[in-house]
Design brief:
Strand content: 5-15%
Number of domains: 3
Largest sheet: 3 strands, mixed
Shape: elongated
Order of helices and strands: EEEEHEEEEEHHHHHHHHHH
């Protein structure tokens, strides 16, 4: 992929992102689909006896702007799509994760239906049922949720499905008139918002502890700066690096850094509790 990286790349300030690789799946990032990135990938792969599966290869535009158009490589037409399933996650061209949320709700609904005999078992304790629900249902519902960009409607959909599943697990009927707070008390489970926020902070801490030369750390730092109103670094301007377009900046803001705590941005290089919370007003007084 090092040879392919020379002809492709997406410039964000002084950061250049070229590709994402996992096993035999590869994503090439570029701001100009007409670049010979796919052709170069085919040529380099053929040297190892490998070939690109053009039927599975797609072109997609991430963020705002015009829709992607099909391109032709070596006589093969590469289809343009608005959504694509990559590593079991639905990547949409829009700026939110509505498609992914609805897909995960549908998958989780089918799983809980297949386990209907378990929820009706009288000899199983409530603790066991809740553990099964967390392991089998929530794992499907919230797969990769720390990277989602959720709207208020998405939060309501997820929370409503979560409560409906808990009522089914607990054997509560709609005619019992049990409040949502009582459902959470009986199950001992956390709300969807609490689970997602905890996973986001965990991901943030994992990336923040990476070395500074790791692209993920550099992108996260720039994303937090953009949210705080700080323009991207222009240190690469003298070397012909193009500053990010509004669509790229929007993508970074809504996808790569969906945290709701801007005050943690300046503490990206710190570790421990102080990285995840703003200083208290009396912190300086306590240090004296």
């Amino acid at each position: 992929m090092s040879h392919v990286a020379n002809v492709t790349g997406l410039n964000l300030g002084d950061i250049c992102l070229t590709d994402l690789n996992y096993a035999d799946d590869a994503v090439l990032l570029t701001d100009d689909p007409s670049q010979p990135a796919l052709q170069c990938l085919e040529e380099e792969a053929s040297k190892l006896g490998l070939h690109v599966s053009w039927a599975k290869t797609k072109v997609q535009n991430l963020g705002s702007g015009h829709e992607a158009t099909p391109i032709t490589v070596n006589g093969e037409v590469v289809e343009a799509v608005s959504s694509f399933v990559y590593l079991s996650s639905t990547i949409s061209s829009g700026s939110n994760s509505y498609s992914e949320v609805m897909c995960c709700i549908g998958l989780a609904s089918s799983v809980i239906d297949r386990l209907s005999r378990i929820w009706s078992q009288q000899h199983l304790s409530l603790t066991t049922k809740c553990r099964l629900y967390s392991s089998c249902i929530l794992a499907v519902l919230l797969y990769a949720c720390e990277t989602w960009t959720l709207t208020k409607s998405d939060w309501k959909r997820l929370e409503s499905f979560h409560l409906r599943c808990q009522r089914r697990t607990l054997g509560i009927m709609w005619s019992d008139f049990i409040t949502n707070a009582e459902v959470y008390t009986r199950s001992g489970l956390q709300s969807i918002q609490s689970i997602v926020h905890r996973r986001r902070l965990s991901l943030f801490g994992h990336v923040a502890r990476m070395p500074d030369n790791v692209p993920a750390k550099a992108v996260l730092r720039m994303a937090c700066d953009v949210r705080d109103g700080v323009p991207p670094s222009q240190t690469g301007a003298d070397h012909g690096v193009v500053l990010p377009s509004p669509s790229c900046t929007r993508f970074v803001q809504t996808v790569l850094c969906p945290l709701e705590t801007p005050s943690i941005a300046p503490r990206i290089g710190l570790c421990g509790e102080r990285m995840l919370r703003p200083p208290r007003p009396n912190d300086d007084d306590n240090d004296m």
